[in-house]
Amino acid sequence: MHSLIKEDQNSGALFQRLKALPEKVDLAEPLLKLADTLRKGGNIASHFDLEKEPDQHVAEAMVDLLDYFMEYVFVLREKATELEKRLDALGS
Q1: How far apart are CA 74 and CA 92, in angstroms?
Q2: Domain coordinates in residue numbering, the chain
Q3: Which of 1-5, 30-34, 71-75, 80-84 has the highest average model confidence (pLDDT)?
Q4: Which of left, alpha, beta for 48 (phi over 0: left; psi -120 to 50: alpha)?
Q5: How many Cβ atoms are within 10 Å of 18's Cβ, its own excluded?
């Protein structure tokens, strides 16, 4: 993370460095790339072009990407919320 944020922000607390991270790195880009890749794969599969037929490795990669996408959108948020509640309970 040190190489991703500005030099003057490398010495701050972790919270400050994480808060500065979006200024240097597009945090939405990986999710948008993943969603676009799934869209492209879905287009190939839905148009039944025998010259562009996905093989087993492509299909498995698509399923893996879809799993990552669903985990990011639904599971990760819930896990973060659960951990936040546990940390709040420890603090009180």
Answers
A1: 28
A2: 27-91
A3: 80-84
A4: left
A5: 12
CB-hemisphere CA count at 13 Å for 50?
0
- Please, which contacts does 63-66 make with residues 24 or more away whose CB atoms are closer than 8 Å? 65/34, 65/37, 65/38, 65/41, 66/38
Tokens of 89: 């309970």
- 84: pLDDT confidence band, cut at 50, 70 and 90? very high
Q: What is the pTM of this model?
A: 0.56
Residue-wise pLDDT for 6-57, tens only, equals 555 556 788 888 888 888 888 889 889 988 888 887 777 666 666 767 778 8
**What are 16's two structure tokens?**
């400050």
CA distances from residue 70 to 5, 26, 75 in whole angstroms, order as listed: 29, 20, 7
Neighbour-count burial of 22, counting CB atoms closer than 10 A to its CB (0-12 exposed, 13-18 middle, 19+ buried): exposed
Instruction: Identify the three-state secondary structure at position 53.
Output: coil
